[in-house]
Specification:
Structural class: alpha/beta
Radius of gyration: 23 Å
Shape: globular
CATH superfamily of the largest domain: Ribonuclease Z/Hydroxyacylglutathione hydrolase-like
Organism: Paeniglutamicibacter gangotriensis
GO molecular function: hydrolase activity; metal ion binding; sulfur dioxygenase activity
Helix content: 25-40%
Strand order of the largest sheet: 1-2-3-4-5-6
Number of helices: 15
InterPro entries: Metallo-B-lactamas, Mito_Persulfide_Diox, POD-like_MBL-fold, Rhodanese-like_dom, Rhodanese-like_dom_sf, RibonucZ/Hydroxyglut_hydro
Largest sheet: 6 strands, mixed
CATH class of the largest domain: Alpha Beta
Domain Rhodanese: 279-372, 378-458
Keywords: Hydrolase, Metal-binding
Number of domains: 3
Distance between the termini: 63 Å
């Protein structure tokens, strides 16, 4: 048996490639939408992808299940659990508790493990060529390394009302009846790692075991004592902010993400044509450079979505393709960089990219305003806006500032003053540049605090010395 973990640092998301060498067939679980990595793995190992499935209706990224099936002819399997409100709306074979997917000697058995979501499945994998006992659990967003999938996400991002309590109860029961009944030696491969907003304390290690989690995870003592009330309280306390785009991901993943098919390389566009389209407000520009360079000057109205490990996350904070359908032009150093950025953007359903430019010479320019921390106290701001997480704000913030997470701010502009200047900050300036550029594009007057909270804290220490 071949088991490969494909990890996306951007969204802290893991998908899995399981292959039977004897039969030359493979199953992919929780695929992302840029699918070349799975096709390359299949080709490298002389296998054909014959089945694709997913653990649940994802909130943090757009599923590549349909995309990969369309490209390979693989059969699609999805959960049929969770009741009528949690049924997928596209054609696929439904899996119930104890349903199986077979590849030669390999069997993947679906376990209904609700809690994070009502329809959630985990997959218990048996390598029949080695043993008749299961050895691996693909746990999705049920059990992470050192943590559990949060049950409040439907309330926070998908319009649910107090579903968190039923979800927490279901999670407690799933642990009792499904996870803790497995042998200690079963290896656990979760769907996310550290940095994901799908839990509050995810470990960075790529896998664990049932026995290790049973013995050392924070929730173990609650299960051992059968203390459901204490478990629910501890589970729900301190969950991170849920990004607003999660609601869109839930809807699109349930309906069935659009199939892109083979994408041609992005074209390099003439700046004169881009300038004309900008003047007509027919396009948007994404500046993929670091915020420090953007602060030296950028295209007027451009969004700052810096290339790198968080491009998909930042893109989903700054672009809502449901309300703004203008195509995007990427400011990137070359074709390869532009394509890599596009790969990240399609993971969160930002598909409409018209091309790229390598320079903004000849385009209208703008230099974002910044404010020195020393000048903040005397500045007449309508609001000082902290775009960090609630936990960061609670741990320490600029006196008088108000918190609204960068991943939510574009969807909650009603919480901002309609007039006056907004002074915004994050921890170091990166997230703030993304949020500030999105707010400017939405019509707000935003000045970024130079150095953000770290810069202000350093200045404050010098004043207090």
């Amino acid at each position: 048996m071949l088991l490969e973990r494909i990890y996306d640092e951007d969204l802290a998301q893991a998908s899995y490639f399981i292959g039977c060498q004897a039969k030359g067939e493979a199953l992919v679980v929780d695929a992302r939408r840029d699918i070349q990595v799975y096709q390359d793995l299949a080709a490298k190992n002389g296998m054909k992808i014959t089945a694709v499935t997913e653990t649940h209706i994802h909130a943090d990224y757009l599923s590549g299940t349909r995309e990969l099936a369309a490209a390979t002819g693989a059969a699609i399997y999805v959960s049929g659990e969770g009741g009528p409100d949690w049924q997928y709306e596209f054609e696929a074979e439904r899996l119930l508790d104890q349903s199986t997917i077979t590849l030669g000697n390999i069997t993947a058995t679906a376990l209904h493990t609700p809690g994070h979501t009502p329809e959630h499945l985990s997959f218990l994998v048996t390598d029949g060529a080695f043993s008749d006992k299961p050895g691996f659990l693909l746990s999705g967003d049920f059990v992470f390394s050192g943590d559990l999938g949060r049950p409040d996400l439907l309330d926070e991002a998908a319009g649910g009302i107090d579903t968190r309590f039923a979800g927490a109860h279901d999670l407690f029961v799933s642990l009792q009846e499904k996870f803790l009944t497995l042998p200690d030696y079963v290896q656990v491969y979760p769907g996310h790692g550290a940095g994901s907003a799908c839990g509050k304390a995810l470990g960075a290690i790529p896998s664990s075991t049932v026995g290790y989690e049973r013995s050392f995870a924070w929730w173990g003592p609650y299960l051992e004592a059968n203390d459901e009330a204490g478990f629910v309280e501890a589970l729900l306390d301190g969950q991170p902010d849920a990004h607003a785009y999660f609601g869109r991901m839930k809807r699109e993943n349930r309906q069935g993400p659009a199939i892109l098919g083979e994408r041609a390389p992005l074209a390099e566009l003439a700046t004169a044509d881009v300038a004309t389209a900008l003047a007509a407000d027919d396009i948007g520009v994404v500046d993929t450079r670091p915020h420090t360079q953007v602060h030296q000057g950028t295209v007027s109205g451009a969004l700052n979505i810096p290339a790198g490990t968080k491009a998909a996350s930042y893109g989903a904070w700054a672009v809502d393709p449901e309300t703004d359908q203008r195509p995007l032009v990427l400011l990137a150093p070359d074709s390869e960089s532009a394509m890599e950025m596009w790969d990240h953007l399609i993971r969160v359903g930002i598909d409409n990219v018209a091309g790229y430019v390598t320079s903004f010479e000849g385009l209208p320019t703008y230099t974002p305003q910044t404010l020195d921390p020393a000048d903040l106290a005397g500045f007449d701001a309508a609001i000082v806006l902290d775009v960090r997480n609630k936990s960061e704000h609670t741990a320490g913030h600029i006196p008088g500032s108000e918190q609204l997470n960068a991943g939510r701010v574009l969807w909650h502009t009603d919480q901002l003053p309609a007039d006056g200047v907004i002074v915004s900050y994050c921890q170091s300036g990166v997230r703030n540049s993304v949020a500030a550029s999105a707010l400017r594009r939405a019509g707000f007057d935003v000045i970024e605090l130079e150095g953000s909270y770290a810069g202000w804290s350093s200045w404050k220490q010098t004043q207090d010395a």
